[in-house]
Amino acid sequence: MPISTTVRPTLSLVVITRNEEANIARCLRSVDFVDDVVVVDNGSTDRTVEIARSLGARVLVTPDWPGYGRQKARALDLATGDWVLSLDADEWIEPQFSSAVLKAMTDPSPPDAYKTPRRSRFCGKIVRHSGWSPDYVVRLFRRGHARFSDDMVHEGLIVPGRISRAAFRIEHDGITSWIDAQRKIDLYSDLAAQRMHDEGKRGAPLQPFLHGWTAFLKALVYRAGFLDGSAGLGVAEYNRRYARDKWIKLSRLGR
Asked: Is the distance from CB of 105 to CB of 85 less than 8 angstroms?
């Protein structure tokens, strides 16, 4: 009597990068059980591409920057797996959760995608409140059953079908230092201001001040960031600077 065997669905990892030599190895090594690794790099000037290729990734280097959503769509177009796992370079999965990823893919009646909790850090400290937690993100999905939005920043996956919750967690080194924080504030506020401008929004003199301190109090008080101690205070201040700067830049675009 023939013995039946179950063939596991294949899995692709997709990551977009720019100057991520400090993070990319940890990210890729944490999911060494995947069948296919795709890295789309936006002209890194450090060793990101070299490290990714040394760990078996297929790397596409793009000279232009279409925004986060469309760059991730480029990576998705290169994926070959039945399932796709999308991670940022500063994210990883702890070893104890690898079996949960594979189990989710072999569900006899699988959803189109899975959402999973993400645990973030601010300057090395885990953030459990502040609006950063609980934080559920959709990152594991069946190829052909989801696509990335076209947003320049704060992109997401568009999943027309069913989304279930998976039993694994993504780790995220969100902000590593105040130098890193300022770099991200500069980048994201540029993109956010341009998007608001394109949507017809306009700035006013008091808006940077009001939106900045509203963001600060929302994270520290309303979202209980004070329970995170110095990390919560850091997140609140990060949010204040980001909100302030994007409204300042929106006002400049309006001129």
From this structure: no
At 71, list the tokens: 């760059």
Amino acid identity for residue 174 in this structure: G
In whole angstroms, give the CA distance from residue 75 to residue 60: 8
Backbone phi, psi, residue 74, to 5°: -60, -45
Whole-angstrom Cα distance, residue 103 to residue 19?
33
Contact between 250 and 197 under an 8 Å Cβ cutoff? The reply is yes
Burial 217-226 (b: 16+ CB within 10 A, else e): ebbbeebebe
pLDDT in tens, 155-194: 999 999 999 999 999 999 999 999 999 999 999 999 999 9
Beta bridge partners of 38: 14, 58
- Is residue 5 predicted with pLDDT exceeding 90? no
Note if the pTM is more than 0.85. yes
Residue 238 burial class via C-beta count within 10 angstroms: exposed 0-12, middle 13-18, buried 19 and up: buried
Q: Give the C-alpha separation, 63 to 231, whole Å.
A: 36
In this predicted model, what pLDDT tens digit does every residue of 191-241 receive, in sequence order?
Answer: 999 999 999 999 888 999 999 999 999 999 999 999 999 999 999 999 999
